[in-house]
Every structure is written in structure tokens, then in C-alpha cells.
Amino acid sequence: MTRYPDSNKWAGTSVLLGKHPSQTLERKLSAASNHGFDGVELVHSDFLSHAKPNNFTPIQSGQKVQSVCKELSIEVLGLDPLKNFEGNIGIPLSKRLDTAKEWIELAMAAGTTVIQMPSPFLPLSTRGYGIIIPELQ
Asked: Where do the TM regions start and end (predicted)?
């Protein structure tokens, strides 16, 4: 595969690398590396399913993932999806900010600065820019 210095990095999302319990996070990362990817977008649930059997906290899981990625010469390009954050009038902003803080800590532990936030889709979400924009700032 020809790469150019200014080209985007090739990545796949961890959920596309397997959902069966036998597809451990380490195995998914190895598959990404073996198939020429530069990195992976990690789904939040993969950190949780990696942490539990290893008796890790999610942060420890993120640190382990970063270590494995370095060994495989790939990187975590993003963490997703932080769903229903902005405009979610069903959950107080302070609680959503606590969740966002946890996600930021996890992203940093995994070695990425990107957290993907899809558009909100809950019935208790507002489309009002007067609420959404300040919440994202």
C-alpha cells in the first residue's frame, strides 16, 4: 500500500474487528496491525470488556491498550461514541460533564485526544442552539 506523507491515516473501528468474546482487544489490535492499519478507533465498550477479565480499571485498560499499540506500531486514533451529550435535557449537565471527564481520562490513557460525539437522538434532547452550543463549549 503506497503511503504519502500528507495522507490520512488508515484505521478501522474495533467493533468491526470482531464482536465474538474470543476476539479480545489485544487480538483486534494485532489484526489491525497485521492488515496494514495505522491505528484503530476504539469503541468504549471494548475498554470495559477488556478491563473486567483482567481486573483492570478502565484507565488501566487504556494504559495497557496504549502499550500494546506501541508494540504493534499502531495508535489509538479515537474513542467513540460519547452519545447523547449535548442537548440532553433528561440528564443534568453536571452529570454529563462527569461522564465526559471520565472519557477524557480514558482517551488520554489510551494515547488519543479524539473523542467522537454523534448527534443526540434521544426524545429528551433539544435541538435548540441556545442550549447545545454552550454545552459543547
From this structure: none
Q: Is 3 domain-assigned? A: no
pLDDT digits (tens, 9 = 90+) for 85-112: 888 888 899 998 999 999 999 999 999 9
Instruction: Enter the pTM of the model.
Output: 0.83
Q: Please choose, from the candidates 105, 119, 98, 116, the residue with its C-alpha nearest in 3D space to the C-alpha of residue 42.
A: 116
Query: Residue 2: inside a domain, yes or no?
Result: no
How many other CB atoms are there within 10 angstroms of residue 96's CB atom? 16
Find out whether 44 and 80 touch, Cβ atoms under 8 Å.
Answer: yes
Which of the two residues, 3 and 45, has the higher pLDDT score?
45
CA–CA distances in Å: residue 38 to residues 13, 30, 42, 74, 113 = 12, 11, 13, 5, 16
The x, y and z cell numbers of residue 64, run together, are: 495497557
